[in-house]
Every structure is written in C-alpha cells, then in structure tokens.
Amino acid sequence: MTTSTTQKPPMWFLVISIIALIWNFLGVMAYLGQAMMSNEVLKQLPEADQEMYTNLPSWYIGAFAVAVFAGVTGCLALIIRKKWAFYVLLISLIAALVQMYYLVFVLKMGNAMTPMIIVVGIVLVWLANHANKKGWLS
C-alpha cells in the first residue's frame, strides 16, 4: 500500500485561488445577465446589439457557460487542493478560446478584456499544473 502526502501550499497560492474564484464568479454573473436578459431589457439596447444578442449561436452561448462554470469549479478545486483542478481549468480555457475567437474574428467585438480573459485562463491552467508538480494538490 502506498500513500501519497501532499505538501502544504504557500499562502499566496490560496490568495490567488480565491481572487481567481471571484474573477470567475464575475464571469458567471456576466453569463447569467446575458442568458436571462428579458425582452424589455433587450429592447432598450441599441438595435445592433439587439440583433447581435438575438442571433448568437447556441454553441457560443454553450462555450460561454462552460468557460465560466468550469472556471468556478476549477478554482474551487484549487482552493480545496484537488488535482483534477488542472483538467477543469483546461476545459474552461478551451471554451474561453472558442468564445473569444467568435467574439473577435466573427463579431469583430474584441476589447481589452478579451486578451485578459485568455491570459487569466492560461495562468490558471499553469498554476494548477505547477501546484500538481509541487505536490500541493491531492
């Protein structure tokens, strides 16, 4: 019988994981705001935005949902120190890349947040991998 012991991570790891969880919760709020937008709110938007929101493909909306909910789940996994955080955060990153591709190259609507979302996703995947290698996750 073999037992594996995990090392206690430094405090900065927990702090970054909590900040990342908050970041991803903000993403969930943005998703829910978009997904549950009422017709009354939609009609108050400029006509171009109304058309854009009405015509978003379901796969884009799905990628958005996967990106943010997997991000929250992955950050919770980091906080409770689970190895599978890496895989969930990788799924989140891939979904965010799909979403941002459509946003930038199809809708031509990228802004300063677009690369920031991708960079944060990459950093979180790296952090989970690093924590696994250091033995901080079980």
Task: Tell me what you see in this structure.
This protein is mostly helical. It has one domain (11-134). It is 76% helix and 0% strand. It has helices at 11-35, 39-44, 47-54, 58-79, 85-106, 113-134. The model has no long low-confidence stretch (mean pLDDT 93).
In short:
The protein has about 140 residues and is an all-alpha fold.
* Helix/strand/pairing category: mainly alpha
Count of distinct strands: 0
Which runs of at least 5 residues are low in confidence (pLDDT < 50)?
none
Largest sheet: none
Strand content of the residues, in percent? Answer: under 5%
SSE pattern, N- to C-terminal: HHHHHH
- Overall pLDDT level: 93
Q: Quick one: overall form?
A: elongated
SSE layout:
Layout: H1 11-35, H2 39-44, H3 47-54, H4 58-79, H5 85-106, H6 113-134
Write out key terms for the chains shown:
single chain; mainly alpha; 138 residues; elongated
